[in-house]
Structures are given as structure tokens and as C-alpha cells.
Amino acid sequence: MIVRKLFAAIALSVLALSPVVAQGTISGTVTDAATNAPIEHAFVIARSTAPSTSPHPGPWGGWWLNIAFTSSQGTYSIDVDAGNYDVTARKWGLVAQTTNVDVTDGATTTADFALGAPTFGTIAGVVTDADTGLPLENARVRARKANSFRSYGALTDAAGAYSMDVRTGDYDVTARKFGYEGSAATAVTVTDGNTSTVDIALSTPDTGTLQVTVNDNAGVGADGAFVIGRRAGSGGWFSWGAGGWIFGQTDSMGFIEFADIRTGDWNVRAGLPNTGRAMGMATVTDGMTTTLTITLP
Fold it and tell me: What is the mean pLDDT of each run of 10 residues along the chain (297 residues)?
């Protein structure tokens, strides 16, 4: 009995010391903007705009608790801590909407939404070789929507032309093709029912030649040494990013040549099985031959 009373006293003490959090409610109705009919199973989320003081655990103050799905009447209700919130309603195939509300202690704040169908426009153009002006087939064109994860892609045809229907809004458009430099992003605004033209000219990269000689620790050419090179800007040794890679094995004289590789600084590693490895660096310039000697330990 004494132990039971002790636990009860401790529990009451913890409750007395726990902070009282002011709470309110966000509720409303989500409807179809065209028909005014209620939308069932729309997803509604309320995100605090300020650093949360919520007692709920989680890196965002437990935002995953501030969600609801609408009923068959399109209604929803979310209990949240008092504060300022961005409330967003989403339904597949319709354009999401966000509104900002203030929630006060013990009060219900109304946030209604009327979701409409998305509007579309077109991004179209031609991708060409910057030097010759000739069209480039199978260039990959990408349009990324500003402030969004949404993106669209297309491949050019034999005439270098591409076209893609996208949701209206602001986009950054880029083009890439193997053997060419990727283009800088071109900003474009797409409006309902209209075509925005983005023509892109791709340039071939500057190239040079790198000749590598690998010697063993006695200064003799290392036969069959592996050589791997990574151009600066291509990411880590295990990342296949932009910039370029080279790899191969030396001949009986410890020599290997890499022709027509992109200009820039190259980090080159060399080694032999069951022996040490070594690294060297070389700068490849346009139209020139650069030599590099690596001596193994």
C-alpha cells in the first residue's frame, strides 16, 4: 500500500510540473472549385511557421501529428498547439492550395479550400550544336518547376526538336547530350494554353591528351599497372558526377595514353596488385599533350 501511494504521489508531481500547452483547432471543408462538391479523402496538413515548443517528439515538433483526411462531406479537423500555421490541402489530380492561419487557445480556426484542376502549357524548342548549328538528336531536355520537386523530360527528334506539356508556372530548362557540355538553366514562365519556346545550343568540351607513365620503386616501368583518373568537379571517387573519368592499364613500359579527354585538373591513381598505390595530379589543356609520371612505393 505504501509503495502504491508513493507511485501515485510521484505521478501527481510529474503532472503538476508538466507545462500546460495552449491548444486550438483548425477545421474546414475541401471542395471542388468547378462543381462546389465536397472532396473526400483530401490530405490536409498544418505546419507551424515558428520553431515549435510542442511537447510532441520529432525534429519538426511532431508535424506528422498535424494531418487529417477529409470525410465524405469534405470536412476535416486538426487539433494543434496555439500558434501560426501554413495549412495545405492536396488531392491527386488537383492543384494543392495553402493558406496561413493563427490558432488561439481554446478556439477553432476555419480554413476552407476549393481545389481546381491544373492548367497546362507547353515548353518546346530545338537543341543544336553550338559550333555547326546542326540539330542534335536524342538530346535530353529537362524542365524543373521552380520551388518544387516536379520536373518533366523529353528527348529531341532527328530535327533536334522537342515538346512537352507541363503545368503552368516557372521552370528552369536544361539540355544534355553525351559528348557535349550540359547547358546552363534557362528560366521560362509557362501560361495556360500557350507555348513557351526555349532553344538551346550545346557546346563540345575542350579536350587534350594525358600521357601517364607508372614506375615501380626501382624506377622501372610497371607493366600492367592500373590507372584511374577523376577530373576535378566530378564528385568523389565513388560518385559518377559531371566532369569525367578515365581508366586503363599500362603497357610493358609502364605507359598509357588517354586522348581527347576533357580539360581541367585530373587526380590520377596508379597501382599494382599486392603492392602499394600512388597518386599524381595533372592539368590537361585544350589541344595539348600533358605528361604525368607516378612512382609506386
Answer: 55 53 92 96 93 50 75 96 94 94 95 96 97 96 90 97 96 92 93 97 91 93 94 57 77 94 92 88 94 94
Amino acid symbol at 109:
T
60-94 burial, b for 16+ CB within 10 Å, e for fewer? ebbbeebebebeeebebebebbbbebebbbbbeeb
Q: Which residues contact 41 (CB under 8 A, 6 or more apart)?
A: 69, 70, 91
Residue 184, C-alpha cell as written in the block: 546552363
Residue with cell 546552363: 184
Beta bridge partners, 270, equal 227, 278
Bridge partner list, 188: 171
Q: Which three cell numbers stand for residue 37?
A: 462538391
Q: Are 142 and 163 in contact (CB under 8 A)?
A: no
Distances (CA, A) of 268 to 224, 232, 274, 275: 16, 10, 19, 17
Q: How far apart are CA 189 and CA 172, in angstroms?
A: 9
In this structure, how many other beta carbons lie within 10 angstroms of the beta carbon of residue 31?
Answer: 20
Predicted pLDDT at 295: 94
Question: DSSP string spanning 213-279?
Answer: EEE-TTS-B-TT-EEEEEETTS-STT---TT-EEEEE--TTSEEEEEEEESEEEEEEEE-TTS-EEE
> Residue 92 corresponds to which amino acid?
W
Cα 117 to Cα 97: distance, rounded to the nearest angstrom: 11
SS3 5: helix
Copy the grid coordinates of residue 267: 587526380
CA dihedral 139→145→148→152, nearest 10 degrees, is -40
In sequence order, the β-bridge partners of residue 236 are: none
Angle at 247 between CA 243 and CA 251, to 5 degrees: 145
Give the three-state DSSP class for 13.
helix
Residues 121 and 166: beta-carbon distance below 8 Å: yes
Query: What pTM was estimated for this model as a whole?
Result: 0.63
